[in-house]
Design brief:
The protein is of the alpha+beta class. About 20% of the residues lie in helices and about 20% in strands. It has a single domain, classed as Sulfite Oxidase, Chain A, domain 2 (Alpha-Beta Complex), CATH 3.90.420.10. The structure holds the ligand Nc1nc2c(c(=O)[nH]1)N[C@H]1C(S)=C(S)[C@@H](COP(=O)(O)O)O[C@H]1N2 and molybdenum atom.
């Protein structure tokens, strides 16, 4: 995403999944009878089986500690994953890939920086401030934020604006169910999200060379935020959220480019005005507020018509066509009726 030009031929080593990882995953799938492929897997897997991955490395969680109440809450999530658009039939990206190929610029700009630099990330205590146009503003502990919600597994495609994608089994709940509790008032047209500002935890926040203006910010229009697909995630693969994926709580908006899915949230503010968002702020000609996945509108420096579905290797580039709204058009298209999506990119 940062303004690096590179030839198609020099694939950085961080983008090449070791063949061993890829093939052992395949062997594992074959080992369970060859049926656990694609949609069959989604139907047959229970919530617990969802957590399984042959090559999973627990050290990759990168958390200083996991609060006991959170572990318990995750274990008490709904037993069966929801179906339809909440459970993508695509083959899931293995845990080790989803947790070592990340964008989290607070830790650095290379894909491996977040997983290698996020050791002992502290999420306890954690609180989220609720502010702006609502009847119940205040500072809430993470436990209070999560208390009334039953967690569930949802498998979503994640499409980065850089033209790669993954398929991740998140643990979480609908953002709208959270927002309603704070009783947004009639002036609440947008909702703004802010990432933790803490240079002790995020090395890039004290770097003199960082191009981003911290803290990382994002926003949604209120009707987008209330859409049932928009999700607050507190974990993946049936466990707590790894630091590098946005612990302890992050947004996931599967029909938008990945940069909308802001990590490690500490503030949610209801607003009458459209919030700024970090990438638009940095380069408005390249990144917009809406950022809906759209194969018909290219990034000024690359095509958005296709994407690399991770894991990839030199032998298996796994390039697939990008779908409008990342394949969620039936669900979300109506939110944008009458809007010119070339202008509102
Ligand atoms: N705070 C914060 N949130 C962020 C980012 C970031 O750099 N900082 N990167 C975004 C981008 S560009 C993408 S593609 C997704 C990646 O999520 P993942 O690492 O869990 O796959 O996180 C998004 N959320
Ligand atoms: Mo991204």
């Amino acid at each position: 995403m940062l303004i690096k030009t590179r030839k198609a031929s020099d694939i950085p080593s961080s983008e090449i999944t070791p063949a061993s990882v890829y093939f052992s995953r395949r062997d594992f799938m074959r080992g369970v009878g060859g049926i656990a492929i694609g949609s069959a897997a989604g139907v047959l897997m229970s919530g617990d089986a969802m957590a399984e991955d042959a090559n999973r490395s627990p050290a990759l969680l990168n958390l200083a500690s996991k609060p006991a109440w959170l572990v318990q809450k995750i274990s008490q999530r709904k037993p069966a994953p929801p179906s339809g658009p909440f459970a993508a039939a695509d083959e899931k990206t293995p845990f080790n890939d989803a947790t070592t190929y990340n964008n989290f610029y607070e830790f650095g700009t290379d894909k491996t920086d977040p997983s290698s630099r996020a050791k002992n990330f502290a999420i306890d205590p954690w609180s989220v401030e609720i502010a702006g146009e609502c009847n119940k503003p205040g500072k809430y502990t993470l436990e209070d934020i999560l208390k009334p919600h039953t967690l569930e597994d949802r498998v979503y495609r994640l499409r980065c604006v850089e033209a790669w994608s993954m398929v991740i089994p998140w643990v979480g709940f609908s953002l709208g169910d959270l927002l309603k509790r704070f009783e947004p008032n009639g002036n609440a047209k947008f909702v703004e999200f802010q990432t933790l500002q803490d240079p002790k935890q995020f090395p890039e926040q004290s770097s003199r060379f960082a191009t981003i203006h911290w803290p990382y910010m994002e926003g949604l229009r209120m009707d987008e935020a209330m859409h049932p697909l928009a999700m607050m995630a507190v974990g993946l693969y049936g466990d707590a959220m790894p630091a590098q994926n946005g612990a302890p709580i992050r947004l996931v908006v599967p029909w938008k480019y990945g940069f909308k899915s802001i990590k490690s949230i500490v503030r949610i503010r209801f607003r009458s005005e459209m919030p700024t968002n970090t990438w638009k702020d940095l380069q408005p000609s390249e990144y917009g507020f809406y950022a809906n996945v759209n194969p018909a509108v290219n990034h000024p420096r690359w095509s958005q018509a296709t994407e690399r579905r991770l894991p990839t290797s030199l032998f298996m580039p796994h390039r697939i066509e990008t779908k409008p709204f990342n394949g969620y058009a039936d669900e979300v298209e109506s939110l944008y009726a009458g809007m010119d999506l070339r202008k509102n990119y």
